[in-house]
Amino acid sequence: MESKKNQVPLELLPWLVVHSDGKIERLAGTEVCPPGLDQETGVLSKDIIIDPKTGLSARIYRPDSVQPGQKLPLVLYFHGGAFLIASASFPCYHTTVNKLVAQANVIAVSVSYRLAPEHPLPTAYEDSWTALKAIQTVNDPWINDYADLDRLFLVGDSAGANISHHLAFRAKQSDQTVKIKGIGMIHPYFWGTQPIGSEIKDKARKQMVDGWWEFVCPSEKGSDDPWINPFTDGSPDLEGLGCERVMITVAEKDILKERGKLYYERLVKGEWIGKVEMMETKGKDHVFHIFEPDRDEAVEMTRRLALFINHVVV
């Protein structure tokens, strides 16, 4: 008979396995690549420590071509991975942010917030808030010399888009002077107990997303916890979203697309004072651009996001 400590009570394949003795075995998503000059995009990057006490870190990016005295928009980027996977140095995200920085001509700070289940929620939100506050005062020459803090954007994919949503409310409610110009939400990770739209027929993936969220954030509210459902009881009204502009991208084959569309509709029809736009990529699934960065669809999505950041109307 297999011993209890070797039993496998939970598999989140292909990413990780949690054994019955509590040991977490990460199978993928732990790969890292070094910072430096990216020859393809002409973007420089380096790593910094934001909070020595917790080990919170980030990777800063800037175009190698930026000139002294030139001020560029500042993007605070939050990677996806269901709050469980990846980091700023994960090769797919390093490539993605390099391409965004080159296309949009921005300074970017990609945050390596701590991951669940070793660091349960709301750790990721707290780390991200710490990073948002830190970039206002950090003594780093790339930010001090080249970043325009009056053009601060939060950009994230999947869980990172979720984080951006919550930070925008917290920034508006905070006594500190944290002004967010806009949010770029790529395939936002929002959910709910009751299925909507295409979720109704896709029972298998509905159960999968339910299960992942319950693992990350076990609570009595399940998928109607305000952390994951921005439309449930206890969630702040979108009228209070603390930014001027929002761009939401969704993918046609993504099970999460319905929530992104609903978020867009609520902003359009609600009392929020701002401008919102949405882009849907046909024939693609969740965060396809991370794994296929050179596909035409990924290039176009990055181009549109760059136009949004630079306030160019399509």
TrEMBL record:
Gene3D superfamilies tied to this protein: alpha/beta hydrolase
Chain coiled-coil ranges: none
Source organism, top-level taxon: Eukaryota
Family to which the UniProt record says this protein belongs: Belongs to the 'GDXG' lipolytic enzyme family.
Keywords from the UniProt entry: Hydrolase
Membrane-spanning residues: none
Protein name as annotated: Probable carboxylesterase 2
Pfam families given in the database record: Abhydrolase_3 (PF07859)
Alpha/beta hydrolase fold-3 domain span: 75-289
Native species: Camelina sativa
